[in-house]
Amino acid sequence: MPSALPDGEPVPDDGALPASALAGAAERPLGFYLHVPYCATRCGYCDFNTYTATELRGSGGVLASRDNYADTLVDEVRLARKVLGDDPRQVRTVFVGGGTPTLLAADDLVRMLGAIRDEFGLAPDAEVTTEANPESVGPAYLETLREGGFNRISFGMQSAKQHVLKILDRTHTPGRPEACVAEARAAGFDHVNLDLIYGTPGESDDDWRASLEAAIGAGPDHVSAYALIVEEGTQLARRIRRGEVPMTDDDVHADRYLIADEVLAGAGFDWYEVSNWATTDAGRCLHNELYWRGADWWGAGPGAHSHVGGVRWWNVKHPGAYAGRLAEGRSPGAGRELLSDEDRRVERILLELRLLEGCPLSLLKPAGRAAAGRALSDGLLEAAPYESGRAVLTLRGRLLADAVVRDVVD
């Protein structure tokens, strides 16, 4: 969750949505994202809305405390129930992210999930995920989560190489994420993901292959691999600007992506989104698919974004301000926007084109359809799906996904 928030119109104090946003809601899937904004230390590459204890000291008081955060977030879940009214939908997915959610007690995460179950109900096959720092969990913690209803967990591995982890300011020990996978399986987790980052300054092709092989060897059924993005204002950006570490270029990122796809495919992982691979359809992250397919989700927590029926809104960023608004019985929303039909068309193309199934060519205007034809001729789109009316990226197209999207959205 990037730290910057967009502009927008004010959110009413009661959080009420336009009637148009709730029309037909029963037919749309609903997910919840729960943001936990706390970290033990700040990673040098991170631009997310997160806070260490030092950063919060004196700026949020007791309201920003980790100790009572679960209570505060439960208040927003109850607000969501009031805003969504008599919507009969059960929640299809829950994703707890951060930050480091597992800095909270396992019982706190279970209590937050319990509030969603109590207020909305969970679908019988609901996917319930939390992110986890490998050093912040152990067998007992994982068992509590599993017994409390979590069935999917995502560990931040990033790399198997110590010198790469050091550049990223990651504090876990190499080998610990792999051990976590075994502990999660022993606790009964159905699905386990490992997150990897490629393109870190000082990382070699061999380092990257070693990380992929270590991740695969641990036995997850899902792997996410993201190119390192150096965000302005981060410690890593400052180090690169001072010449302390080199910056990798787009060609290196492309090479690493090709290595990832080759190694993962060879181990039985199939891509289903440009940066995500799973061993089975059941192993896909259903929560992320809600985002990518424009479904409804409520984002609870500081800086969290939500989308319901074409209305998108975002919460105030600071944990103290967030808790203060809820304590006063007010929505924590900082701003919102009503998406036009054109906005939603463009977003569908942006998101769906990154998926294995691609996007319908019918979404494209004449200029975009012409651009898609050129992309097909250039080997960026698959021929057979194109003939059936869908734009699906080839492997080379995945490398140039952003450029393809720019061309076809007119």
TrEMBL record:
Location in the cell: Cytoplasm
Record's keyword terms, sorted: 4Fe-4S, Chaperone, Cytoplasm, Heme, Iron, Iron-sulfur, Metal-binding, S-adenosyl-L-methionine
Keyword Metal-binding (UniProt): yes
UniProt cross-references to SUPFAM superfamilies, sorted A to Z: Radical SAM enzymes
InterPro entries: Coproporphyrinogen-III_oxidase, Elp3/MiaA/NifB-like_rSAM, HemW-like, rSAM, rSAM_horseshoe, rSAM_sf
Radical SAM core domain location: 24-270
Record function comment: Probably acts as a heme chaperone, transferring heme to an unknown acceptor. Binds one molecule of heme per monomer, possibly covalently. Binds 1 [4Fe-4S] cluster. The cluster is coordinated with 3 cysteines and an exchangeable S-adenosyl-L-methionine.
Family statement drawn from the similarity comment of this UniProt entry: Belongs to the anaerobic coproporphyrinogen-III oxidase family. HemW subfamily.
The protein's name in its UniProt record: Heme chaperone HemW
Species of the source: Streptomyces aureus
